Amino acid sequence: MPSGFLLGSSKLSLLLSSLLLSAHPSLAQQTNVARILIYSATADFRHDSIPTAVDALMKLGPHSNIAFDHTEDKTWFNDDTLAQYDALLFLSNTGEVLDDAGKTALRNYLDLGGNFVAVHAASDALRNTTWYQEEVGAAFDYHPEITNANVDVVGPPHPSTAGLMNVWPVRDEMYNFKSDPRAIGAVVVLSADESNPGPRKYDQGTPHPTAWYQEHGAGIDENGTAGRSFYTSLGHLNETWKDSLFLGHVMGGITWTLQSNTTGAFNASARVGNGVPTSNGTNSSSTASHSGTGTSSPR
Ligand SMILES: *[C@@H]1O[C@H](CO)[C@@H](O)[C@H](O)[C@H]1NC(C)=O
Ligand SMILES: *[C@@H]1O[C@H](CO)[C@@H](O)[C@H](O)[C@H]1NC(C)=O
Ligand SMILES: *[C@@H]1O[C@H](CO)[C@@H](O)[C@H](O)[C@H]1NC(C)=O
Ligand SMILES: *[C@@H]1O[C@H](CO)[C@@H](O)[C@H](O)[C@H]1NC(C)=O
Ligand SMILES: *[C@@H]1O[C@H](CO)[C@@H](O)[C@H](O)[C@H]1NC(C)=O
Ligand SMILES: *[C@@H]1O[C@H](CO)[C@@H](O)[C@H](O)[C@H]1NC(C)=O
Ligand SMILES: *[C@@H]1O[C@H](CO)[C@@H](O)[C@H](O)[C@H]1NC(C)=O
Hints:
The chain is α/β, with parallel strands linked by helices and about 300 residues long. The chain has helices spanning about 10-25, 50-60, 80, 100-110, 130-135, 245-260, 285-290, and strands at about 35-40, 65-70, 85-90, 95, 115-120, 125, 140, 145-155, 165-170, 175, 185-195, 210-215, 230. One 2-acetamido-2-deoxy-beta-D-glucopyranose binds near residues 221, 222 and 223.
C-alpha cells in the first residue's frame, strides 16, 4: 500500500478498513498485531529519503506482525490517538515538530509504557526538550560530510545487529552527539570507525555511539512506566533504505523494542498499544489513525 494513501485520506482509509473488516471478520480478533505510528514531520532540514523509508517499513511490517501507520500531522499527538500504538517511530524529524499539547501527549504515552524508536535525524528534533533527548538517548551535535565508513558491531548480542558482519561497511553520515547515551543507561550496539573523524566538541564516550538501545527509556517522568527505546543514527540515503542489511538492523531494533511487555501487543493488561484507545474509540482522529491497514480494531 503506498504510504501516500494513509496521508490525509482518513475517510477513504476508514471506508476501506470497514470493507476489509466486514469481508474478513476474523481479522478483528487478531489482537497481537503490533501497531506502530511512524512520524516524519520536519521543521528544519528535510531528508528526501523519508518517502523511501516509509515505503520500506510499510512493506516489511506484515512480515514482523506489525501494522504501521504514518503521519506528519502533529494533531495526531493526543492521548487517545497515541494510546493505540505499541510504539512510536520518529523518522528523520528535525526541529520543533510538536507543539506543547503534542509534547504533553508524547510524554503521557511514554509514561504509560509506550515504546519509542528513533531513526537518523530524529536526534535533532525538539532540541529544547530534555526528556525527548533522553528518550532518544542523546542529542545530535553535527556530522562531517557523508562518507564511506566502517561501523563496528559492539556490545551484547542484539536483534538489531544479529544480521550484520562485525565490521559493516556503510555509506552514511557519522553523527556526533552532545552527550554519551551510556551515561543515562543506553547500551551501544554500533560504533562508527571513521578514517577521518571530525572534531569532537562534547564527550560522547568511547567507542563512538552510532546505534543503541535502552531497556527502560529515560524520557519518562519519575513516576512513569518505562517502555523500551531504540535509536540508530544511520539512514540518510534512499540507497540505505533499500539495503537489506540496514533494513534488518532497523527491523531488529523495532521488534526488540516491542517486546517490552508494557504495551497491548504483548500484554493484554497494558495501558497503551494494539489499537486500544483510552476512551471509547469515537474520536474521529483516533478512528482514522487505526484504520491504516484494517488488521486490528479496538477490543
Ligand atoms: C530519494 O527518493 C525520493 C522518493 O522516491 C525522491 O523524490 C528523491 O529524489 C530521491 N533522492 C535522490 C537523491 O535520488
Ligand atoms: C530553545 O532555547 C533557546 C535558548 O533558550 C531559544 O533561543 C530558542 O528560541 C528555543 N527554541 C524553541 C523552539 O523553543
Ligand atoms: C511522583 O510520585 C510522588 C509520590 O506519590 C509525588 O510526590 C510526586 O509529585 C510525583 N511526581 C510527579 C512528576 O508526578
Ligand atoms: C516479556 O514476557 C515474556 C513472556 O512472559 C518474557 O519471557 C520476557 O522476559 C518479558 N520481557 C521483559 C522485558 O519483561
Ligand atoms: C502488563 O502490564 C501491566 C500494566 O502495566 C503490568 O502491571 C504487568 O506487569 C505487565 N505484564 C508483564 C508480563 O510485564
Ligand atoms: C465516547 O466518547 C464521546 C466523545 O468523547 C462521548 O461523547 C461519549 O459520551 C463517550 N461514551 C462513553 C460510553 O464513554
Ligand atoms: C479527537 O481528537 C482531536 C485531536 O486531538 C480533537 O481535536 C477532538 O476534539 C477529539 N474529538 C473528540 C470527540 O473527542
